[in-house]
């Protein structure tokens, strides 16, 4: 595990009991292991696939600024009609 930074934490009785239960059941070797695993999982969720909170806010704003969502089938039909017309002009067939 390399270097460690020793910390003291305070848990509610419910969380302390949950930690004690999983250690007693043999799921973890120690309370420290439970807390480390919980913190790793929290960090993974917080990382959000590598995006920072500010990057996510920017992406959300870009989505809002781009206007309302469009339905796929009508767009595909318009594109199909457009390219069929282009093919007709060039003398190509479907």
Query: How would you classify the helix and strand content by structural class?
Result: mainly alpha
The unreliable regions are none
Structurally, the number of domains stands at 1
Query: N-to-C terminal Cα separation, in Å?
Result: 64 Å
Helix content: 55-70%
SSE order, as H and E?
HHHH
Radius of gyration: 27 Å
Task: Specify the overall morphology.
Answer: elongated
Mean pLDDT score: 91
The total of beta strands comes to 0
Query: Approximately what portion of the residues adopt beta-strand conformation?
Result: under 5%
Largest sheet: none
Count of helical regions: 4
Describe this structure as you would to a colleague.
The chain contains four helices and no strands. With 94 residues, it is mainly alpha-helical. The chain has one domain (13-89). It is elongated. The model has no long low-confidence stretch (mean pLDDT 91).
In short:
This protein is mostly helical and 94 residues long.
Main traits of this protein?
94 residues, mainly alpha, 0% strand, elongated
List the helices and strands and how they pair.
Elements: H1 13-24, H2 31-47, H3 53-65, H4 72-89
